[in-house]
Amino acid sequence: xxxxxxxxxxxxxxxxxxxxxxxxxxxxxxxxxxxxxxxxxxxxxxxxxxxxxxxxxxxxxxxxxxxxxxxxxxxxxxxxxxxxxxxxxxxxxxxxxxxxxxxxxxxxxxxxxxxxxxxxxxxxxxxxxxxxxxxxxxxxxxxxxxxxxxxxxxxxxxxxxxxxxxxxx
Amino acid sequence: xxxxxxxxxxxxxxxxxxxxxxxxxxxxxxxxxxxxxxxxxxxxxxxxxxxxxxxxxxxxxxxxxxxxxxxxxxxxxxxxxxxxxxxxxxxxxxxxxxxxxxxxxxxxxxxxxxxxxxxxxxxx
Lengths: 169, 124
Fold this sequence. Notes:
The complex is a heterodimer.
Chain A: E1 4-5, E2 13-20, H1 25-39, H2 44-65, E3 77-85, E4 88-95, H3 103-106, H4 121-128, E5 131-137, E6 141-149, E7 153-154
Antiparallel strand pairs in A: 1-7, 2-3, 3-4, 4-6, 5-6
Chain B: E1 2-8, E2 11-20, H1 25-39, E3 43-54, H2 56-71, E4 76-79, H3 83-92, E5 99-101, H4 104-110
Parallel strand pairs in B: 2-3, 3-4, 4-5
Antiparallel strand pairs in B: 1-2
Helix pairs in contact in B: 1-2
């Protein structure tokens, strides 16, 4: 294991946001989660991937969770909880909307209920995160939990002075 | 998001800066479609060199423009993709149908356009 340095873990940090399921809030959530991820010493490239995954999860709520309230302009609420602890970033995106009738189908690449979309939301979440867990109850809501672990980097000291560019420096 | 468009010969050049996501994809769609109609352009170059963020909503809008342009016999290329933008384009498979060039100038040249007016030193 020579040359391997344990990832810097940092102290527990977290936030909880409650906000309307509106398109303009995708950027807000992305900024908040990206900032928290930078506390864990993810690289800029890794933070970009996390930002995409979180945007997909939040966009799904805006697009699908509250159709009876006018979709994009509706007033449904989303709860975003993010936690950086022990080298793991965990982001949970929850709604109290219609739920997903068939999660397995919804997660299939290119599956979409909207003809103007590509069905790539879950593909990006699954590609860019280590774990994607979906809990849903039709009529009661959906919770998507995204997890990404800080990788062990070969030969990179924990102060991040070598190798890849770091966020937050 | 900010969009600037320029006509270089028969080619519509669209420069997108900022973030292309669910909140901004609609504006991108409307602006590009309106300028396609206004200029009557066949081919489109979309420059992403100032793009800070792209997700599946932005991709959907890009692919929608591709379909519209292709139906009229035109071509679409992108340029200046940063690594995080390129990764999203690659994962989606969009790069199998839309070529990515290092710069607007090279994308315009690939379409056989006149690059002397497409270096960013024109009206932009």
